[in-house]
Amino acid sequence: MINHLSKQFSQRGLVTIAIFRKHSIEEIVKPFIKKYNLSWLIARDPEFVFLKRLGINKENFFVVILVDKEGKIILKQEDFNKADFVKYKKEIEKLLSKK
Questions:
Q1: CA atoms within 13 A on the CB side of 86
Q2: What is the pLDDT of residues 32-54, one digit of tens each?
Q3: Taking the mean position of all CA atoms in its chain, how far away is CA 87?
Q4: Domains of the chain (ranges plus CATH)?
Q5: What's the predicted TM-score (pTM) here?
Q6: Which residue has the higher pLDDT, 56 or 22?
Q7: Strand, coil or helix: what is 65?
Q8: CA neighbours within 13 Å on the CB side: how many for 65?
């Protein structure tokens, strides 16, 4: 789902970043990337510094951040699920069309 949004909107300036909280690169992150054929940026925040600055307080598996072409965070999502896919797609479309 996220990969689809990332690919669909990347030409319009959208950057997708997944931030893993406390998982090791070798054990969790690389297999996750390979399993889902991810093409977005991956970061780790093991000390929970950056995520707290974003106002994220839960210790989720990962957080997805969508950034527009001007570097503005347009969506922070802690719990991404299929039911919300259409809603986020419409929201991203609307936000990117403003530029």
A1: 1
A2: 788 878 878 888 888 888 888 88
A3: 15
A4: 2-87 (3.40.30.10)
A5: 0.70
A6: 56
A7: strand
A8: 18
